[in-house]
Amino acid sequence: MTAGLHTLSCVSFGVGFRLRADSELLLPAMLECAPLGTQSLRVEGPGDIEEFTLWGLGSAGYRLVVCGEVVAEAAEVRAVLEKLTGDLMVYVANHAPDRVFVHAGVVGWRDCALVLPGTSFAGKTTMVAALVRAGATYYSDEYAVLDERGCVHPYARDLQMREAGSAEQVPVPVGELGGRAGTAPLAVSHIVFTEYAESGRWDPQPVSAGMAVLEMLRHTIPVQRTPARVMATLGKMMETATALRSGRGEADETARLLLDGIDARV
Q1: Number of domain units in the chain
Q2: I want to staple 137 with a disulfide (CB 3.0 to 4.6 A). Which of 76, 108, 144, 186 is the partner?
Q3: 113 and 215 inside one domain
């Protein structure tokens, strides 16, 4: 281990990793980048876990090194920390022994989970916020965290909202939306594939379980490392879930139509 570096050993979803920096003042900011629920350890972790190292370069800025490789360099520390956030999440998701992570927004409704898979900029957070305003319980705006039964666990960080026309994200606590966060795992009742279009109209059509799993594989970690476990988990989820696909217009109207449609089928 490099002399002079300040170190923090951590564990998240059963995955150990180590944060290092050449300034002790940087470690709290690095820990804030770790996945929700990450715990720092009082004792030094094993020597063979992944290390994420942040170097200050003086007037040249900051550098992030992972496994001996430079993965980010920028004049402002914020840009490097954003890269660290993404890399830590992917690392934990890839190595979590008993969880599967799907890029998706999640809310609870009538004691079941609604999962909205999608990539960044697909409008997941916008739809989740609208559903929360409509009375749904907040679970996640980033990942559906599935256990081996196919149930979704809360990953209720602050919602990362974007202002219109801006790529910059602003954290918004769910309470500011008049909502609350879920605390217990839920079986999944609906998978909803939808993206905003200016002329979009809510007209949900059924998607077969097989096609829904294939679509969700595009958004799932760790599909490349443990494909059999991922397929088994998604298959268990689909035992209780109905999949729908539709375009959509404004999120608040779509949220009301979606929830009303679910209630009408009960």
Answers
A1: 2
A2: 108
A3: yes
> What is the tens place of the pLDDT at every residue in 2-25?
557 899 999 999 999 999 999 999
**Contacts for 249 with CB less than 8 Å, ≥ 6 apart:** 196, 197, 198, 199, 200, 201, 202
- Asked, for residue 1, whether it belongs to a domain, the answer is no
Q: Report percent pLDDT > 70 for the chain.
A: 95
Burial class of residue 229, CB neighbours in 10 A (0-12, 13-18, 19+): middle
**Closest by alpha carbon to 185, among 156, 216, 228?**
156
pTM as predicted: 0.91
Q: Which domain holds residue 253?
A: 100-265
Give the residues across from 70 on adjacent strands. 65
Residue tagged 């360099």 (tokens)? 73
CATH number at residue 144: 3.40.50
